[in-house]
Write a structure and sequence with these properties.
This protein is α+β, with helices and mostly antiparallel strands. The chain has one domain: 6-pyruvoyl tetrahydropterin synthase/QueD (Tetrahydropterin Synthase, Chain A). The longest helix has 16 residues. Strands 3-1-2-4-5 form a five-stranded mixed beta sheet. The N and C termini lie far apart (about 40 Å). The model has no long low-confidence stretch (mean pLDDT about 90). The structure holds zinc ion (ZN). The site of zinc ion has 5 residues, from strand 2.
């Protein structure tokens, strides 16, 4: 490794509050309830001459504009047909894909999270 082309991963976190109701989940997840969701988005890149890969503040601003502004303080059932954490996570991945996102992790509670590494599939 002499060309300086190291690969780095940068992770930016955000929090949003939203309500949802899961269809056909059985039990209490079918009732309207809310979470403070924690989003972690990881971006790849190479080290630039400045000693940085990307500007954290730019990524944070773009995450706010593309994702958090829509989801925060929303009823997720107004946005998604069935707002499971998996489907929300994939939607976020698709919104951040133009920024070079490589992984999106969405925490529904401090114990439960979903990780998405692609936007494909049904
Ligand atoms: Zn829930």
């Amino acid at each position: 490794m002499t060309d300086g082309a190291e690969r780095f991963l940068l992770t930016v976190s955000a929090v949003f509050d939203a309500a949802h109701r899961i269809r056909d989940a059985g039990g209490r997840c079918e009732r309207l309830h809310g979470h403070s969701w924690r989003l972690e988005a990881t971006f790849g890149g190479d080290l630039g001459p400045s000693g940085m890969v990307r500007d954290f503040l730019d990524l944070e601003r773009e995450m706010e504009r593309r994702v958090v502004a829509t989801l925060d303080h929303s009823d997720l059932n107004d946005i998604f047909e069935n707002p499971t954490t998996e489907l929300i996570c994939r939607w976020i991945w698709e919104r951040l894909a133009p920024l070079g996102v490589v992984e999106v992790r969405l925490w529904e509670t401090p114990s439960f999270s979903v990780t998405c590494r692609g936007g494909g599939g049904g």
